[in-house]
Amino acid sequence: MAGGCSMNPCCVPSRSRAAVLEASRQASVERQRVNSGSIDAMIRLDGALFLMGTDFAQGFLADGEGPVRKVALDPFFIDAYPVTNEAFEEFVKAASYTTEAERFGWSFVFRGHIPEDQQARLVEAAAPGVDWWCKVSGADWRHPEGPDSSSAARADYPVTHVSWNDAQRYATWAGKRLPTEAEWEFSARGGLEQKLYPWGDELTPAGRHLCNIWQGEFPVNDTAEDGFAGVAPVDAFPPNEFGVYSITGNTWEWCADWFHPTYHAVATRRNPTGPGSGQAKVMRGGSYLCHASYCNRYRVAARNSNTPDSSTTNIGFRCVRDV
Predict the structure, then answer these.
(1) No. of H helices and E strands in the chain?
(2) Tens place of pLDDT for every residue, the chain, 323 residues?
């Protein structure tokens, strides 16, 4: 099991727990510091000791959202916005890069965003056990809903259909890196302590929508009360108190860490980097397909994961760099 922790931490013998902690500390000390990228459109966060995670009763405890723990971070810069189609196109041209979805020849698209008269032609298969996710030939970052669609008019939208591997390549090219899970959550909280969302505990304060998620009956009808029935521009909603935009809802964001539901319970509390290996990478923030009835992971402490080669129409990323 990833990180050498294959059982509930409270059941791990103390010597094993000490070994896991020491390995975690070493990884934190040795993690690559990246500070060559431009800080244009980035926000400097001075780091701090903050309360990470949640014990929220309606959360997904099996995901390892808790326990709440104190985590210390060094200063870092974070992109104010998710990486956009425009920025990703610059990278693709400069690096002559081809995404994994393009190499595979397909990616996952939400069924409701594929015109009904085209589904028979475009949909190869539905994802196992999840009928609303469809394997669509020709879907990629340039063609978000399939070969007949285009991202050309969505320059300021977050790039999607990028795998973790694609995001990592972009970050390296830009002289940056993907955020650790702790850096992502610290940034999302915007200085608020143990709140559900970047702005507080109420999803729609005074009836105002502050993020792009699903309204209506999922997955049948999105009423788009927040103004969008799909992905939205990166600046469509106000930033949090740190000045970070679109970090909740809209698109999931890849993090650097391998996913493990309990590793953090015995890991270092200073600049944690996650397990040393694993099968899936952490994703944070939720997306426009999240709804309380199915996936209320648009809370800032919620976690999710996917394999590093996976891509969909609702996964993007942003970058950080060290000070």
Answers:
(1) 6, 14
(2) 333 333 333 344 466 667 877 888 888 887 888 999 999 999 999 989 999 999 987 778 789 999 999 999 999 999 999 999 999 999 999 999 999 999 999 999 999 999 888 888 888 888 877 889 999 999 999 999 999 999 999 999 999 999 999 999 999 999 999 999 999 999 999 999 999 999 999 999 999 999 999 999 999 999 999 999 999 999 999 999 999 999 999 999 999 999 999 998 888 999 999 999 999 999 999 999 999 888 899 999 999 999 999 999 999 999 999 99
Contact 276, 34 (CB under 8 A): no
Radius of gyration of the chain (CA): 19
CA gap 58, 199 in Å, rounded: 19
- Are 282 and 47 spatial neighbours (Cβ–Cβ below 8 Å)? no
Burial 59-93 (b: 16+ CB within 10 A, else e): bbeebbbbeeeebbbeebbbbbbbbbbebbbebbe
Which residues does residue 197 pair with via DSSP β-bridges, in sequence order?
A: 200
Range of the domain at 102: 2-322
Whichever domain contains 102, its CATH number is: 3.90.1580.10
As a dihedral over the C-alpha atoms of residue 263, residue 268, residue 273, residue 279, rounded to 10 degrees, the angle is -20
Contacts of 280 (CB under 8 A, 6+ apart): 258, 259, 305, 306, 307, 308
The answer for residues whose C-beta is within 8 angstroms of residue 28's C-beta and 6 or more apart is 268, 270, 271, 272, 273
- DSSP per position, 274-298: --S--SSEEEES--TT--TTT--TT
Query: Coil, strand, or helix at residue 321?
Result: strand
Report yes or no on whether pTM surpasses 0.70. yes
Instruction: State how many domains the chain has.
Output: 1
